[in-house]
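Task: complex structure prediction.
Instruction: return structure tokens for all chains below.
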Amino acid sequence: MLTAVPICDGHDSAINTINLEFVRHGMEVIYLGYHRPARDIVRAAIQEDAVAIGLSSYNGGHVEFFAEVLALLKEGGAPDIGLFGGGGGTITEADARVMRRQGVDAIFFAGTPMAQMVEFVRRTYGKARKRPARCFSKRPPGTDRELGRLLTAAAMNTEAGVAQLHSSEKRTVPLTIGITGPGGAGKTTLIDEFVLRFLKARPSGRLAILSHDPSLVSTGALLGDRAAMLHAQDDRVFLRSLGTSGRAGGLSPATECCLEVLRRCAFEVILIETAGSGQEAMPFSRDLVDKAVLVMSPDYGSRLQLQKIVMLDVADVVVVNKADRPGAKTAAAEIEPRLRLNGRAQQLLCTMAKKHRDPGVDELFGLLTS
Amino acid sequence: MSILASVSEAVGAHHRFVEEQVQRARTDGPFREQLLERWRQIRAGVGTITTPTGLKVERLALPQTDDPGAIARYLHGEGLPGAFPFVNAAYQSMYLETPEEEGRSSDSRAPLAEEPTRLFAGFGLAEDTNERFHYLTRHQKSIRLSTAFDGPTLYGLDSDADGVFGKIGEGGVAIDTVDDMERLYAGFALDDEHFSVSMTINGPAPILLAMYLAAAKRRFGPEIVPRLRGTTQADILKEVQAQNEIIFPLDDSLRFLTDMVEFTTVHMPRWYPISISGYHIAEAGATPVQQAAFTLSNAFTYAELFRQRGLDVNRFGPRLSFFLDCGLDLEYLALARVCRKIWAIGMRDVFGAETRAQLLKLHTQTSGRSLIAQEFRNNLTRTAIELLLAYVNATNSCHSNSADEPFTTPDEENVRLAAHAQAILLEESGLFKHVMNGLSGSPGMKMVEQAVERALLEEFRELDQLGGVLAAIEHRYQRSQIQSAAYRYEQQIGNGARPIIGLNRYAGGAAKMPAVKVVRTSRARKQHQVERLKKFKRRHRAQAEPALLQLTDVVQRGGNVFAQLIDTVEHCSLGQITARLHEVVGRYRPTV
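Output:
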């Protein structure tokens, strides 16, 4: 399910609480954040192949906004994606009648017990999806809708899917970049800034992102990377969120299969963002990605800590992000000799991804795409 | 060590000072005599009044004690109303009616020196809100307008932006240009000393204030600038923590804000450039202590920033104001008292501010979150209790919510009921108009005060350990704390641990929404706003780009952006300006 708060609305208290409640009941929730235009919401729902969209609207204009979402779903070939929402007392009974007539599945009013919402979602959208037999088609998917569906199929049949995909012939060779690092190092921000530069440098190219968030097997998960992205909300970007399903290393059992599907599409670059990883993690095998990037923040701890980070030996590029923080210089100075010792021409860069037009990110973009 | 650690230390030092005074009063003979003499003089100086029922009472309630230690603790630890550390009140007499007022007849009614009632309004287009303002203030001599803006304006977008049409004029007034701003306050004497305006705007606050300035200059000439009275909310830190209406990256937002504060401090001495707000923090789900702690820590962070800019604490300090939520939880019995004290100590002992800059001037609003749609007339009772708590805490001004607010922009009847609740409390009931501090200082209140203060300083320590407010924001500390509190609150409602009458206890019937008439902006009105914005853009087509280039140059050179905006708004719309600033400094990246 995908949840969001409409454009010009920052009231996220209700949706944050509801997200947690849905997750607690075993649902996988992709949260897009607040102040989101209908176009971004629908694009995300289609790319994520969500079963439904839940909107929390407190700032008025809901009748028009929900109608816009429905129209865009239809336009995107996804009229079957459900839509429900609420807005405390700001949505009246009369509004709700209009909205339901337009095709909204349900509107919840102030004071609705959360259990009732959970029950509604289960009953309406909870039917198990049929496991598709094949997860690739003869021709590459022509729309985000088809691709979104295909990725769901791929994720559901991982082993068979990989075998099928390996045996199928057609394959473009997009540049695949893996990005990993501990939680809080700024991977998502860095990727979003990478996207901005990509969109400027390639006026018509498309880019795909596989974004991983931690989750456990058969429990709920909150996938929130999209909420912190500004530039990746673009028709030329295809972003798919994956839960790790308890797998160590920050990738999902479905990653490889999804990647194979994406490689059959017309993307110039594919980015794989791992969930926040630990020191021992080594998520990327050599053949999975073309380039592996390790993103760190200066506060990794002591030099001793550094010794244990396995990825330092495997990454092609090591980025010390948050370079404005105290300790950034020391960090770079401590990492540099380690890389030199490896003798693999690994690159070390300092970035401030949160800064607008950071030259460090420019350099990283150049390095990765050259 | 962050500024918060210094404040905590100063509070600790103040406590030690008070206890020393208490000890001396008990052990040092001449000191005791001096103190008792002072106390006698204070008591003798309190006037008396005869109430309409003929009861003769003192005008100020003081502790009934002759114990020198207790007297010392009261005078130094709480202070008389209007005396450091201002626990009882920022000013000496607050809501007291003067004897002349008490005898006046209804038709000769003059306004109170400072009517504490504020009326919040904003819907539709500028003319619609203007009309509402005139309706609300037709019997008032002192006019204090409080303005709500619609979603697109709050996010710095124009009414013709993609995907915002439905939001035009909903929940607030649509302002795109300086022309709209002129329409909004048309017919009001902006130069009158009894007029003030407050604007609930944050992310684009400098642009909106620049429009206000430019519109005022059009009508009254440049000499109006130093006479303008009012408030911009402009509290960007609480936006990041709770309300999510920040549009530029935090560092740039703080720079634009500081530019604005620098300008108003020098050129608009009667303006309150920033209203440091806990209200939205509390409405987003924070506990009362979190509200107070985050608000005060934000305030000290601003003071530090302005000081670093080279501004004089004694000039900007008195122009900082505060805005807190008042709900039904026990903490509200003393929350504002604690806030006044910590602010006063911090400003005096850490920032070296003089008295005027030590005062926490407080606007309170009753809790919107405590109101519910079911059996909504109960909201009148909730609001009345909250009002009582707010005034017991000596708020300087107050807004009372309308009972119908859980489902709509309030209608006229409900606005009137809410405003009258305040009048009933202050003017009709005898609780506040005859006696100062009539309800302050009960043992229960003192106990709550101490518990709140301890919890608040504990929160300061946590923030300090994270490296202060700005570093804590990067760790999304405040957000995650507020979100957990919100989740807990909902669970408590769900499991009945937090009774809400008419909702999870004594629920009368089906949970049906009352049929109310909702104030909405028609399609035609929205279309009208879009059309006239397009006209504005056509009319200024030639001048817009040069104006934006000049603005860009000031941003890049590090000049005062606010001063430049006053010119920019003459030719550019809100959306044009924010779009250009986004190009130069980027966008705010939301945190979940």
